[in-house]
Write a structure and sequence with these properties.
Elements (H helix, E strand, L loop, with lengths): L4 E5 L3 H13 L6 E6 L3 E3 L5 H5 L8 E3 H5 L5 E4 L2 E5 L4 E4 L4 E3 L2 E4 L3 E3 L7 H4 L6 H18 L9 E5 L3 H20 L8 E6 L10 H13 L2 E5 L3 E5 L2 E4 L4 E3 L2 E4 L3 E3 L2 H4 L9 E2 L12 E3 L4 E2 L1 E2 L4 E2 L4 H20 L12 E5 L5 E5 L2 E4 H28 L5
The structure holds flavin-adenine dinucleotide.
Length: about 400
């Protein structure tokens, strides 16, 4: 019989875990495995707030795909996926090439959600990618360099849209970085304004209120001004316009209000909610025997709350493991497994040695939460590349 082709789309958390584990389950005589991604490196999306603020070198967050799949029987295709054609078992790339599959794993991540607010893509920093982080970091430093030659307040005004995990984690890093930049560029600290504008009635909606208060107090003490329950109606060349008409003049607007799935999902015609596919329990797209969708492109329901789980790296990686087992079962026989997320906890960094989190039923803050966060970051490296990768790119938890 012909060997089946397995295509993995996206070299993020879901895709890389799938790639890392699949060769353990299927030998080179049992399947052809191909990983497609638009960069030749994997990056730790969950770390990007650090290089974006300039508190970590962006190279620390990325690693060559070749190194991660080195020695494994996986072909790598550097290319941008445009569309899956599930009726034809094909994937098309932006260079016109087509790839055939017997099984496909769609793990192409997310894009920013604008909630219909105009001007986001034109006038804000919104790309939580390595390239996006690099640009924001350089831009921020440039604003400080510019200010003393042309002292306009808007150069030193930063607006973070969204007080969810990404916004809060980014504010943590920015508020640590700003005093360093002030020193470097001879700018008085009190000239810098950092706003966090959030539409919901609270920061970190759904998170433990005591920890939310801890985070907000800490960030306020570092100079962050929160505008909670305040929707942004437009992002413009000059900054943001708030509902009610107030404007904040700022050269730097950072968009962190949440994500929707990759537009590939909509283009490919899968039934979706905000470009996320409500997958079957075995992680297949409804109606397709050979299409698995994982990570931020998938939507799974928390049966306790009857609401979707927020998309996380934690879930994406666990889904990768289940997909590997299920593809193996389809090829070699056996039962498909149901995916059940095992939520170990949630920890958000706040810059420096500060963090907040809930792990199991324990609340953590300060240095113990900071320690836990670094261990979580190191664990992801461990899963993808073992001890070698932890030594090379890992974080010091102390
Ligand atoms: P990703 O890991 O984003 O990977 C997608 C991959 O697909 C990338 O390699 C990308 O280059 C590639 N790709 C995209 N489009 C194409 C295309 N057209 N063709 C080919 N390849 C493509 N989650 C947590 O669990 N804990 C946290 O603490 C946490 N913190 C976060 C902090 C920040 C700043 C951000 C932005 C997110 C955070 N998240 C966190 C969420 C987490 O990063 C995502 O849920 C996770 O990355 C989803 O994994 P994924 O495999 O679906 O996509």
């Amino acid at each position: 019989a012909m060997k089946p082709n397995i295509l993995i789309l996206g070299a993020g958390y879901g895709g890389m875990v799938t790639a890392a584990k699949i060769t353990k389950e299927l030998g080179p005589n049992e399947a052809n495995i191909t990983l497609v991604s638009k960069h030749d490196y994997h990056y730790q999306t969950t770390w990007l707030h650090e290089p974006a603020a300039g508190t970590l070198d962006s190279d620390r967050t990325r690693m060559p795909v070749s190194q991660l799949i080195g020695g494994k029987k996986i072909d790598f295709v550097l290319g941008e996926v445009e569309q899956v054609h599930p009726e034809e078992n094909k994937v098309s790339l932006s260079n016109g090439e087509q790839l055939d599959y017997d099984y496909v794993v769609v793990a192409v991540g997310a894009i920013p959600e604008t909630f219909g607010v105009e001007g986001v893509f034109e006038h804000s920093f919104n790309q939580w990618t390595v390239n996006g982080a690099r640009e924001l970091k350089e831009h921020t430093e440039y604003m400080f360099a510019k200010y003393n030659n042309e002292p306009k307040d808007e150069y030193l005004t930063f607006v973070v849209a969204g007080a969810g995990f990404t916004g809060i984690e980014y504010l943590g890093e920015l508020s640590v970085r700003v005093p360093e930049l002030c020193k470097k560029y001879d700018v008085p600290l009190n000239k810098v304004k950092i706003y966090c504008v959030e539409a919901a009635p609270t920061a970190l909606p759904g998170f433990d209120p005591e920890l939310v208060e801890y985070a907000m107090n800490l960030l306020e003490n570092r100079g962050v001004e929160f505008k909670i329950g305040t929707p942004i109606s437009e992002v413009t060349e000059n900054g943001v316009t708030l509902k009610g008409g107030e404007e904040i003049n700022a050269e730097t607007v950072i968009w962190a209000t949440g994500v929707r799935g990759n537009p590939i999902i909509e283009k490919s015609g899968f039934e979706n909610m905000r470009a996320r596919v409500k997958v079957e329990k075995d992680l297949r797209a409804p109606g397709y025997e050979n299409v698995f969708i994982i990570g931020d492109c998938s939507l799974i329901i928390n049966e306790e709350t009857e609401r979707p789980y927020p998309p996380t790296a934690q879930i994406a990686m666990q889904q990768g493991e289940t997909v590997v087992k299920n593809i193996k079962a389809l090829i070699k026989g056996g039962e498909l497994q149901e995916f059940k997320p095992d939520i170990k906890g949630t920890v958000a960094s706040l810059g420096g040695k500060e963090a907040i989190g809930v792990v199991g039923d324990k609340k953590l803050f300060g240095t113990s939460a900071h320690f836990m966060k670094k261990m979580i970051d190191n664990r992801a490296l461990w899963i993808l590349g073992g001890a070698g990768l932890v030594l090379k790119k890992g974080k010091n938890p102390f």
